[in-house]
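W.,

You were right to be curious about this one. When I first looked at the sequence I had no strong expectations either way, so I just let the prediction run and decided to look at it fresh. Below is the sequence, 112 residues in total, followed by the output.
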Amino acid sequence: MPAAIAATARPCFAFAAIRQDGIRKARQGHRQRKAAIDQMKPSRALFLAAIRPAQSAEEAIEDAARFVSMFRNMPRWRQERRTADFARARQQRLFARFFRRYGHRLWALEAT
C-alpha cells in the first residue's frame, strides 16, 4: 500500500517542480524588464532614442502593434529570420507603455 501512495505522489512533485520553474522564469523576466526600464529612467533623450524613429509613446505603441501583428501572420520560416526585430518591437512596446504612463512624473522630477 505505501508503494501505491508513493507512485501517486510523484506526479504532484513533478507538477510542483514545473510550477516553481515557471514562477522562477516569470520573476527573472520581470527583473530583466525592470532593469531595462531603470536604464531609461534618467533621461527623456534615452527614451526617445530607444523608440526611434517614432516621435512619441503613442506612435511607438502603434508601430510595435503593427509589427507584432505582421510578425504573427508571417510564415514560420520568415518569423525565424526576424526574431531580433520581434524582440526589438516587444521591447519598444514595453518602453512606450511604461513611459506613456509614468514618464511625465519622472521627467518633471528631473527638471526640478
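Here's what jumped out at me. The helical segments are 2-40, 44-50, 57-72, 76-81, 83-111. And, maybe more interesting for your project: The mean pLDDT is 87.

Coffee later to discuss?

I.
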